[in-house]
Design brief:
The structure is a single chain. The chain has helices at 26-31, 47-54, 145-148, 255-280, 293-307, 314-324; strands spanning 58-71, 82-96, 99-107, 114-124, 128-134, 137-142, 152-157, 163-169, 171-172, 179-181, 185-187, 202-212, 215-227, 233-248, 283-285. It has 326 residues and is α+β, with helices and mostly antiparallel strands. The chain has one domain (26-324). The strands form two sheets. Strands 1, 2, 3, 4, 7, 8, 9, 10, 11, 12, 13 and 14 form a twelve-stranded antiparallel β-sheet that branches. Strands 5-6-15 form a three-stranded antiparallel β-sheet.
Length: 326
């Protein structure tokens, strides 16, 4: 899961050319299953894997829990535990044999206000994935054939559809429990801390998704570290355990979520295409501050136009990317 939005109130958001945009969607080709496996083979995913990923769609009451655990730096004091939550629907955006895209959308039950949240893409036997390689920088990396064989790569994206992190692992079914555990991967400061912390600038994490009796869970095994400009770890501060629980509910009206997505989905599809094009050129760097609001605000404003029956032009979308993405 991407880092949850920790706000006391809902969010209200009143060139480099992409002429090669369609052509450079080689990223999509390299990640789409049955096209570009690392060993050249073509395989179909286990039907149980697909069912497990699709089991995460639905309507949920979500609890976010983060606790620092093992202190790794002399003199460091654990930060207070963090608790938050929300009401969230998970919508299937794409469902093909070896690729499933799930979009998370929050709703404020009192006002009906909707906030587009994080997105998770699942790709079977992906040959490539992006990696958080330096501050505000993501680089495309090849996945070793032995690691991706029979495995799913989960890539997680920000509310603006900017990249966050990827992880690769296999689904297992021991004792009748469907569970996916990633390898170690890098991710930037979580949204819940980037305005509060300056003592670390990256997390190395292992993520675990489990299909549970009343929904599903996401566990995070995080280590908070300081990295230099070349991406080398210079200091490890503390380990952290994150536990995010998605409990299915029928007691909440998620109608505003589906109405929002019906009106804005075509716009966000155009935005995703531009991110794919930028990443395909060996990666990207953001010119924004860590909070990313310089990108989030104009993109959410353009999505708001779609809600009002208007359409942001391609030139308007490209202008945002030309200003903040390189």
């Amino acid at each position: 899961m991407a880092d949850p939005l920790f706000f006391s109130t809902p969010l209200f958001f009143p060139p480099r050319r992409f002429a090669r945009g369609v052509a450079v969607c080689a990223l999509a080709v390299s990640l789409v299953p049955n096209m570009a496996f690392a060993d050249g083979a073509k395989r179909e995913p286990d039907a149980r894997d697909r069912a497990s990923i699709l089991a995460m769609r639905g309507e949920y009451v979500v609890g976010f829990h983060f606790d620092e655990t093992v202190v790794l730096q002399s003199g460091y004091e654990r930060a207070p535990a963090q608790r938050s939550g929300g009401d969230e629907a998970v919508i299937v955006v794409e469902d093909s044999p070896g690729k499933i895209v799930l979009q998370h959308i929050l709703v404020d039950t009192r006002s009906g206000h909707v906030t587009k949240h994080w997105r998770q893409d699942w790709i079977y036997e992906a040959a490539l994935r992006f990696e958080f390689s330096a501050d505000q920088t993501w680089t495309m990396r090849a996945i070793p054939a032995e690691r991706t064989r029979g495995a799913w790569t989960q890539c997680v994206y920000e509310v603006s559809d900017a990249p966050r992190y990827c992880g690769t692992g296999q689904w297992t079914y021991d004792n009748g429990v469907a569970m996916w555990t990633s390898d170690e991967s890098w991710r930037p400061l979580p949204r819940r801390e980037h305005t509060k912390r300056s003592d670390y600038n990256a997390i190395v994490a292992i993520n675990r998704h489990t299909i549970a009796a009343e929904g599903w869970t996401h566990e995070q095994f995080n280590t908070k570290v300081r990295r230099d400009a070349e991406g080398r770890t210079t200091r490890a501060l503390v380990r952290e355990f994150g536990f995010n629980e998605y409990r299915a509910t029928k007691a909440i009206d998620f109608g505003p979520v589906y109405r929002y997505w019906e009106k804005t989905a075509p716009y966000w599809e155009r935005v995703r295409a531009r991110w794919d094009a930028a990443l395909a050129e060996d990666g990207l760097r953001l010119r924004t501050k860590i909070d990313g609001l310089a990108l989030i605000i104009p993109l959410f404003e353009q999505a708001g136009m779609s809600e009002e029956g208007k359409r942001a032009t391609d030139a308007e979308i490209d202008a945002v990317f030309a200003k903040w993405v390189e």
